[in-house]
Amino acid sequence: MTPLGRVRAALPRLPVRRGRPDRAPRTGTSFKDPSFARSLALFKAFLREQDDPQSCYSLLARDAADQVEAYGGPVAGRVVVDVGGGSGCFTEEFRRRGALACLFEPDLRELGEKPPDGAVVADGYLLPLADAVADVTFSSNVLEHVCDPQTFLSELVRVTRPGGLIYVSFTNWLSPWGGHEWAPWHYLGAERARARYERRTGKDAKHTLGVNLFPVHIGTTLRQVRARDDVRIVSARSRYWPFLTETVVKAPVLREFATWNLLLILRRCPV
């Protein structure tokens, strides 16, 4: 049985909702997007990530699922492929909303002790899926961790059906959070920032530039996506910013610092 077939077999035990999509129950954050209240809530959650990761990523998952449904409609009964979703918070949230969701994660350590049923250890460069099987392909904060973003994006497109939605979000290198746990000192150089983090905390840094963290830039990514003929951009916006979310992305140079995290909503073009 294929990985997706195993997920379909497991999902009947989950609360899959049927019926009219506009009557499907919602389990979202209730925040307006964008808004100061939403951005503040997410920022506070990020500050508590180390102490309370479950609450942080649960809120982020609900917020991301809200965004997917805002651009693509309710996910109930639809196939959602979550690529690089770590321990499965996003997958579980999509399932709570009735989606046929499957997690593909390459790192066993990120999966944790209790990954979602049907989770598959797989590389995002080569997903064990046939072409055009997903209604929604979802990737949250993964692109900056792959050394070949174009190939990674091509694989997301390949497994998405024509007319399907592709959600891609990433933290760009020149963002204040671009260095991840050793930000914002990455502005002074990656090695210096990493050494400072280890000296200050007394523990090894999770990320190493050129190994599991790569300098991805907004302008370059947008040019690469616009050059493709198999997708069109529905929205290119700041994922977390409270206002002018698309305007800031249109400003060269400024966007590399002010966007913080780029959200790309793509639509797979008809074959």
From TrEMBL:
Pfam families listed in its UniProt record: Methyltransf_11
Instruction: Give the keywords, sorted.
Output: Methyltransferase, Transferase
Q: Where is the Methyltransferase type domain?
A: 81-168
Cited InterPro entries: Methyltransf_11, SAM-dependent_MTases_sf
Domain of life, source organism: Bacteria
Q: Which GO terms describe its biological process?
A: methylation
Asked if Transferase is a keyword of the record, the answer is yes
Molecular function as annotated in GO: methyltransferase activity
Q: Does the record's keyword annotation contain Methyltransferase?
A: yes
Q: What is this protein called?
A: Class I SAM-dependent methyltransferase
Species this chain originates from: Streptomyces thermocarboxydovorans
Question: Could you read off the lineage of the organism from its UniProt record?
Answer: Bacteria, Bacillati, Actinomycetota, Actinomycetes, Kitasatosporales
